[in-house]
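Our consortium's second objective concerns turning raw sequence data into structural hypotheses that experimental partners can test. To show how far this objective has progressed, the report includes one record in full. It was chosen at random from the queue rather than selected for favorable results. The single chain below, 489 residues long, was entered without modification.
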Amino acid sequence: MSTLVFFVGLYVLISLGIGLYAARKVKTSKDYVVAGRKLPLYIATATVFATWFGSETVLWTSSTFISEGMGGIIADPFGAALCLILVGLLFAKPFYRGNFLTIGDFYREKYGRTVEILASIAIMLSYLGWVSAQIIALGVVFHALSLGAIPQEIGMVAGAVIVLTYTLFGGMWSVAMTDFFQMVIIMVGLLIVGYYVSGLLPEGGNIATVVGHAAENGLLNPFPAITVGDAINYAGMFAFVTALLTMGFGSIPQQDVFQRVMSSKDENTATRSAVLGGSLYFLFAFVPIFIAYSASLIDPAMVQAALGEGGDTQLVLPNLILNYTPAFVQVLFFGALLSAIMSTASATLLAPSTMFVENILKPFFKTVSDAQFLRIIRGAVVVFAVFVTLFALNSDAGIFEMVENAYKITLAGAVVPLFAGVYWKKANSVGALLSMSFWIIAWVALEITNPEGTVPPQMAGFLFSIAGMLVGSYLPKYLKLEMKPKSEM
């Protein structure tokens, strides 16, 4: 057994141990879902950061920068960090005061049962791609670490079982405690790896050398060209705005985000942890970008091969680590990578399972005890884990493609009712229903007829969703319809 495999295996066992130890704190369903609302600032911040710092941050973002520059990574980290900061500034306090268990509870309280079900289904569907992407990434890592001895499919199943084990027993307490441990591994590991890789740069190069090389190749400009030839570049500008909004707004109505808000010990902690977590995420997302792009100076031939036909830029970063660094640096890198994947997978496994039980099933079991409710949630976690693993095993989509597709659903269907419900007094259930209806019509129609058009389908769906909210919220007034108080919905 190699040193790398031994220490990575030891890391996995430690993560499992921490998760199972934290499970001792779970006595009620509230402990399981929101950690009893007791998380201090440092753990709440860690769980926000670690949940979002996933496989796509380490592998996809860094590889995309190599080929497309800043313009290719607007969605992540720019949009992703924007989401977390907006959650902290705009939604943390209202939701914490509402004492909601899930984000679906907000839709029920504001708009009624029908909107709760529709919004919850849309949000749960969005998790299918996100969790599956992490399962695929675990399979890739285990396959690489074993030098091909472990098939990727077996690695995916093994990874799913590991994450399921501590999530199943400890819920949010286990997720939070392992996230704190994993955040430390991510930060320390990537900083040390970055420092070592900078020492490999030719002719005494440093960070400024790498940044300068990227600037010379035109990779630091994030904005699209205003014109292409003699025509205004509408397609490029729409693509830029859509990429930013898909992650920046589309990932706001997500259960994992609000689960962290609701798990904080008070509303100030909820606000600060989201803002701090988003800020740390944005800063540290550039560490793997720096490490991967350093390969352009250390081994230009490898990078050119990856950029060529049949190449894969996602392999640049792991190949650089495996070919140019000693065992202890490899241990740190793969430990950080596994931390990123496992923290995201556990959070995104728990979130939709909780919503399914709380917002879809619970109303049918009005007499269920808290202990029974807890058992049902755990059962849902197992079922969802099996389902996403099967989905991942049969998917041909790339890691980031699966994650981005997840947020297309919530950008078009759940964002507008959320914003309006919190900040617009005229918003009502008719507006929410029309918002979702207009979204479905516009988004699905364009996905079928013109998915590559000037206006991306999810952007069109988003705009139609706004129109639906406006029309529906003013419609009862002009038709003299009586709206039920939300307490009667």
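The partners drew two points from this record. The CA atoms of residues 88 and 271 lie 4 Å apart. The chain has a mean pLDDT of 87. Both points have been shared with the crystallography group to help prioritize constructs.
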